[in-house]
Write a structure and sequence with these properties.
14 strands; alpha/beta; single chain; 4-stranded parallel sheet; 8-stranded mixed sheet
Length: about 600
């Protein structure tokens, strides 16, 4: 198998760029491993506190060298994707005992739902919750009682935060354990049509509520291909899930069998056995490149353009937006999952899912086949899909042919030749755009700008009938330093209605617009942000702006643009209410969007 030369070049570039921080990271992890199993350093008093409530396992913990697995859980029952984790601790403890190990819930991490906070003040805490999750997981594992860790998390910021923690505690193995997607509700395009009708005043609130409840209707991940399901793909491509574990529905025998197998594997790969696989060795440049390839091949969420650099930095690997763009140029778009198609993730999985994709990409030389994983050395195991026969879990060869070419296509006959993610550069700064769901005739938009400082102001202008010609809507002062970089997804119905009326429209923002943004061209994560005096702060209403996703440029055509003084905005309203006052230090210290908008890394 020959590695694609461009993939090799990008990987070599990342490896060279990361040489010093990666070497320092590996040195720290090696020193931690050299200290030996964690519990050997605890005093009798330390251990007594740790084992006091572990009735069935107390003797094993105190007197044996059996592996002890720490469980970090994002369980709550407000997030449908995380509700299934309620019953996992009992299942995990029983599986650990059967494997000759023990397991303890080390701690919980917060898990907020962007679907609940969309368009609400609480969304201003959303991105920062990633760093809080990393911190909370760090506290959980700080007791230093564990030989490996299981991470129970699914959704938007939860998995990236847990990866940052797993990398920080990279001297012990890490296995990520999913919960799976909810079963399919009403089709996502039907839900979207009701949202658009409501935005135009053509549907009642009761009709909107009925559509939403029929879509988000049970336990499990929301079925559109947004950040949560992109995270699950990523964990499989990066070798942190067991093969084929990502998209098995909750509450099924196969789901429980995979959870049991994850516990067994976490026990097998500790330093106490003969197949030691610390997380820090798995999380190298090959793993992150494989994750980037999966992102492009599936048309995944643009939120990962923020999260992956922050995740990688925690393990001493430095990613740049150019890496995303260069890999997008060589990786074909092989999946059509809503909002990039009509299918949901259950349909995607049934059509061949991740095993079909991994098979195809490995054969095309577009994945590192030698990457280390929790399942073994190399990605060969990830060609296989799990099966349950007579109650016994096993793996068989995954599909080599698509079972529905409207959802999945081979690498040689893709939906598009490239992954659809573009870096944009120009005199307005640096950002990204996802064009995989955008019609080709909308890849270039040149129009006057209308400038807003809030989502609500855009919607008010729409309701007042102010958008009557081609317009680029600029929503600035939405970056991490300004207000925590809330997602602007609630603008999607408004912008889609304008587009459906025949107007050429686009969004430009220093904020976020996720993979659920659909068919509207959106230049997002523009950096430097307006709150830091970036070029966005020099824009004026009526300036002619050219967004060119073909050339990868974002250019203001006003002749005096560079000589203008940046405007400032009163951001005091962002500093309090719904917990925002607690995050003032985050807004003051957060990194820039193009480096991952990190606080703790």
């Amino acid at each position: 198998m020959t590695l694609h030369p461009a993939l090799a070049r990008v990987t070599d570039r990342i490896r060279e760029r990361s040489h010093a921080p990666r070497a320092e990271y590996l040195s720290r992890m090696a020193a931690a491993v050299a200290n030996g199993p964690a519990r050997s350093h605890l005093t009798c008093g330390n251990q007594a506190h740790a084992y006091a409530a572990m009735e069935a396992d107390k003797t094993t913990l105190a007197t044996s060298r059996a592996p002890n697995i720490g469980v970090v859980t994002a369980y709550n029952d407000m997030l449908s994707a995380h509700q299934p984790f309620e019953r996992y601790p009992d299942l995990i403890r029983a599986a650990a005992r059967a494997a000759g190990a023990t397991a303890q819930v080390a701690g919980g991490v917060p898990a907020m739902c962007d679907g609940v906070t969309q368009g609400q003040p609480g969304m201003e805490l959303s991105l920062f919750s990633r760093d809080v999750i990393a911190l909370a997981a760090g506290v959980a594992l700080s007791h230093n009682c564990f030989d490996s860790a299981l991470y129970l998390g699914v959704c938007d910021k939860i998995v990236p935060g847990l990866i940052i923690a797993a990398a920080t505690f990279g001297h012990i193995p890490a296995v990520f354990v999913p919960a799976g997607p909810m079963t399919s509700g009403i089709p996502n395009d039907q839900k979207s049509a009701v949202r658009n009708a409501y935005a135009e005043g053509k549907a009642t609130r009761e009709e909107l509520m009925a559509a939403e409840m029929a879509s988000y209707h049970g336990a499990g991940t929301c079925t559109f291909y947004g950040t949560a399901n992109t995270n699950q793909m990523l964990m499989e491509f990066m070798g942190l899930h067991l093969p084929g574990a990502s998209f098995i529905n909750p509450g099924t025998p196969l789901r429980d069998a995979l959870t049991t197998a994850a516990v067994q594997r976490a026990a097998e790969i500790t330093a106490l056995g003969n197949d030691f696989r610390p997380a820090g060795e798995i999380l190298d440049e090959r793993a992150y490149v494989n994750g980037l390839v999966g992102l492009m091949a599936t048309g995944g969420s643009t939120n990962l353009v923020l999260h992956l650099p922050a995740m990688a930095r925690a393990s001493g690997v430095i990613l740049d937006l150019q890496d995303f763009a260069d890999l997008s140029d060589i990786v074909p778009l092989m999946a059509k999952v809503y909002p990039n198609g009509l299918a949901d993730v259950n349909h995607f999985h049934a059509a061949g899912g991740l095993q079909f994709l991994i098979n195809q990409l490995l054969d095309a030389g577009l994945l590192h086949p030698d990457a280390k994983t929790v399942a073994g050395d190399g990605l060969e195991a990830y060609r296989q899909e799990p099966t349950l026969k007579d109650g016994r879990l096993g793996w068989q060869d995954g599909p080599r042919a698509t079972l529905n070419d409207k959802i999945l296509r081979p690498a040689a006959d893709p939906f598009a030749a490239t992954g659809g993610l573009k870096q944009l550069t120009g005199n307005l700064g640096r950002g990204v755009i996802k064009v995989s769901a955008v019609a080709p005739e909308r890849h270039i938009v040149e129009a006057p700008v209308r400038i807003f400082h809030t989502q609500e102001a855009v919607k008010a202008a729409f309701k007042a009938g102010e958008f009557t010609s081609d317009t680029i809507v600029v929503v600035r002062f939405q970056g991490p330093s300004a207000n925590g970089m809330p997602e602007l997804h609630s603008l999607t119905p408004t912008l889609m209605v304008l587009q459906d009326r025949g107007l050429k429209v686009a969004l430009v923002t220093d904020g976020r617009m996720s993979g659920a943004s659909g068919k509207v061209p959106a230049a997002i994560h523009v950096s430097p942000e307006a709150a830091l005096g970036g070029p966005l702060a020099r824009l004026r209403d009526g300036d002619l702006l050219r967004l060119d996703a073909v050339a990868g440029t974002l250019t203001v055509l006003a002749p005096d643009f560079d000589s203008r003084a940046p405007v400032t905005a009163d951001l005091s309203a962002n500093s309090h209410g719904i917990g925002r006052e607690l995050f003032n230090v985050f807004r003051q210290t957060v990194g820039t969007a193009d480096t991952g908008a990190g606080v703790v890394v």
